Amino acid sequence: MSATATKPAKKKATLIPLGDRVVVEREPSEQKTAGGIVLPDSVKDKPARGTIVSVGEGKMDDKGHRHPLQVKPGDRVVFTSYAGEPFKVGDDELLLMREDDILAILG
User: Fold this and answer.
1) Residue 50 belongs to what domain range?
2) Is residue 4 domain-resident?
3) pLDDT average, residue stretch 81-95
4) What is the pLDDT of residues 18-45, one digit of tens each?
5) 4-8, 36-40, 67-71: which has the minimum mean pLDDT?
6) How far is CA 46 from CA 25, 38, 41, in A?
7) How many Cβ atoms are within 10 Å of 22's Cβ, its own excluded?
8) I need a labelling partner for 60 at 20 to 30 A (CA). Which of 29, 31, 34, 79 fits?
9) Considering the domain boundaries, does residue 1 fall inside one?
């Protein structure tokens, strides 16, 4: 028997936001309309939904107390359409935004 080499597992990059910021992975946009028409990339709207990847420690108030965020990693959220700063970590495209830009948590 010969030993076979296995590929090392791909390590996911870690990003820890500061304060009241969160890292969101945007959901993929729709490829087709309800009627079955395939949409080209130039027409697709960027979805305003995504999944929380990581969260900061919370917002600091005037008295120096830290208030934890209402969202946690794994939550599916709806956010304002132009919220966040897009960036890439490895192959992942993520958004860094303030908790105030999040409108709701999807159940």
Assistant:
1) 21-28+46-106
2) no
3) 87
4) 999 999 998 876 666 667 776 665 555 5
5) 4-8
6) 12, 16, 10
7) 26
8) 79
9) no
State how far the Cα of 80 lies from the Cα of 76, in Å rounded to an integer.
Answer: 14
Per-residue buried b or exposed e for 71-102, using 16+ beta carbons within 10 Å of the residue's own CB: beeebebebeeebbeeeeeeeeebbbbbbebb
Asked whether residue 14 is assigned to any structural domain, the reply reads no
In a domain, 56, yes or no: yes
CA-closest candidate to residue 75, choices 22, 28, 30, 29: 22
Q: CATH number of the domain that 73 lies in?
A: 2.30.33.40
- Alpha-carbon distance 16 to 36, whole Å? 40
* pTM assigned to the model: 0.73
Cα separation, 89 vs 86, in Å, equals 10
